[in-house]
Amino acid sequence: MNIKKDLLYKQSHEWLKVEDNEAYIGISEYAQNSMGDIVFVDLPDEDDEFKAKEDFAVVESVKAASDLYMPVDGKILEVNEEVMDDPALINSSPYDSWLVKIEIQDKSQLDTLLSGEDYEKYLNEEMDDIGYESKED
Q: What domains can be seen in the chain, in order of their start residue?
């Protein structure tokens, strides 16, 4: 499983790439693998504002639809039109296929997110809890 160590994560599998007072948000490789082929994304409008933990988008796959939750308080600066036109980009490259760019309204909330290392530990614990055994090469 590819986990980018320079990103921040939520346990609900959203990632953040922080650049000063802005952040790009997407879903992790684990999330897109779990969902299967992504066929539709419903993203908010520019200038919409969300509080941390509010649902801000929907990603639909051939298996199910999943709400995405805002990691921190933020204002939508930009939506990724390419992903809206071709949602399968998320499957082929989840860390390059960001969904929204936000203005972070409370940087202290970043401290509540998981580092790449902590997210990896979280996933390993979750897999252990469900009895998933990875094959080591």
A: 8-129 (2.40.50.100)
